[in-house]
C-alpha cells in the first residue's frame, strides 16, 4: 500500500506518520511506502522502518511548494497511490494575512491532488482513497445547535477555502475518480509552542503551562465554550476515515467529527485534577473579544452521520487532557 501525506511535517502529520510506522498497516493492508510532502522537514525520518516480520516501509520525503502544480505532478504521478491524507493548509490567522498564498495552497493544491488521483483512476490504476482534513471553520457563526444540516457561514478565508475543497471532493467522488472523505476537525490539543499562525494556539498553551504549575493568562472568559480533541483521537479518526466502508458514507462524504464541548473553567479544573496543580490560583482571565467570538461561543454539537460511521471523540475531558501531552 502506497500512502501519501501532505503537510507531513506539521503537528498532525508527524503524529500520523509515527502511528502508521508503529502499526505498519491501514486496516488489513500492509503499508509498503510512505510519500511525505511539505515545505521542509524538521525531524529526520529513517528511509525504512520495520513492519512486523514481513518487510519494511520505504519512507520518501519531498520538500517543496504544494502550490507548484508541476512539482506535485512530477513528484506523485509516477506511481500508484492507494491513500492520500491531505493535511496541508495555510490556517486561519496566516490565511487572513496572506490570502493569495492561502488560496494557492488551500484550493489550488487540493485541486491538483484531485486531478492526479483522477488521472490515476482513468488510467485504470485504481481509485485512491482521499482523506481531506477539513475544519469546523466552515461553520463560522453558529446557531444554538450544530448538526449535520447546519448552514455554512465561514468568517475566515480559511473556512471558505475548506468548503471549496469539500465540494470538489464530493464531486470527484460522485464521478468515481476518488473515494473521498472530508473530515471536519475541531481544535487539536496540545500543539507544541510554535509560530503557526493559528489563533487557537492558546488552547494548547493553557494545558502545557498549567500542567507544569506555571501562571497563564487566558484570552477567553471562564464560561466561554469551545470544542477540541486530542491529537491521538484525531489520528484515530483520520485512519478510520481511510478504512471506513464507502457504503457507510456514500451519501455523506463530508463529516463533522465528534469532539468534546467544554468551558474554559471546566478545562482548567480538568488540568488541575489530572496534573495535581492548583490551577485556580494560576489562571487569570483577560478576554480578547475577537478570540472569544471565534473560539469561545461554541454551541452543543450533534454528529449522527459520523457517529454511525464509527468516528469517536475522546470520551471525557480528563481523558483529552491526559492524551494532549502524551
Please compute the radius of gyration using only Cα atoms: 20 Å
CATH topology of the largest domain, what is it called?
Answer: Rossmann fold
Helix content: 40-55%
CATH class call of the largest domain:
Alpha Beta
Q: What is the CATH architecture assignment of the largest domain?
A: 3-Layer(aba) Sandwich
Coarse morphology: globular
Number of domains: 2
Uncertain runs are none
Distance from N terminus to C terminus (CA atoms, Å) equals 28 Å
**Strands of the largest sheet, in order across it?**
5-6-4-1-7-8-10-14
- Estimate what percentage of residues fall within beta strands: 15-25%
Q: Tell me the total number of β-strands.
A: 17
Mean pLDDT: 92
The helix/strand series, from N terminus to C terminus, equals EHEEEEEHEHHEEHEEHEEHHEEHHEHEHH
CATH superfamily of the largest domain: NAD(P)-binding Rossmann-like Domain
Main sheet overview:
8 strands, mixed
Class from helix and strand fractions: alpha/beta
Helix tally?
13
